Amino acid sequence: MNEKVLKIVQKIFNVISILEIIACLIGGYYLYRIDILRDPHALSELVMAHYILGPFIFIGLQIIQVVIPIIPGGITTAAGVMIFGPNTGFLYNYIGIVIGSIILFHMGRVYGSVLAKTFIKEKHYNKYMGWVEKGQKKYDILFFIAILLPVAPDDALVLISSQTKMTWKYFLFTIFIGKPLPIYLYSYILIHGSGFLANLLT
Question: How far apart are the C-alpha atoms of 81 and 184, rounded to whole Å?
Fold first, then answer.
């Protein structure tokens, strides 16, 4: 690939990245306005009102909540299981979160620390980057372990990882292999956790 073609391809990807950010910001603002981000019943009504497009709408919501890390993903993850059932809900959660993570990693690579520090507090950013200074291999292992945990700040760690020398191959391997377990556990905890605690206290 010659230099001119490479520059054209880079410009195309830059435009796509900008459009991705704009689309996610508009989508996030719209969801906030109709109160879906805080009300799982509103989310359920939106998805169920569109029988055919419902799954695509839900997957799109999951992508948005990953790409814009300030949006809480707990509601959408639990709602996916409640709306579609445990198996189908898990699948849609997995697809949306994986796609969102890939987009977020790509945008982090394109826009660097400016984007990362927009969503991550500086003290946390510096702490995570301190892990990287201990060695790329050690950080890669820590990243894989963190992705397996349902309570880890996955989206922040994806942005941090985009600032390191982590390869796309390793990142995709970690996301594809590591995401199923925390998605399942997180969904189970959110749906059944309150009932479990109530039974313990009664």
Answer: 9
Q: What is the pLDDT of residue 44?
A: 66
Domain count, the chain: 1
The pTM score is 0.74
Q: Which of 23, 189, 190 shows the shortest CA–CA distance to 100?
A: 23
Q: For the segment 149-166, what is each residue's pLDDT rounded down to a tens digit?
A: 877 788 889 999 999 999
CA-to-CA dists, residue 109 to 60, 112, 166, angstroms: 22, 5, 11
Q: 194 is in which domain, residue-wise?
A: 3-201
> Which two three-digit tokens encode residue 36?
């879906």
Mind giving me the DSSP string for 82-132? HHH-HHHHHHHHHHHHHHHHHHHHHHHHHHHHHHHHHHS-HHHHHHHHHHH
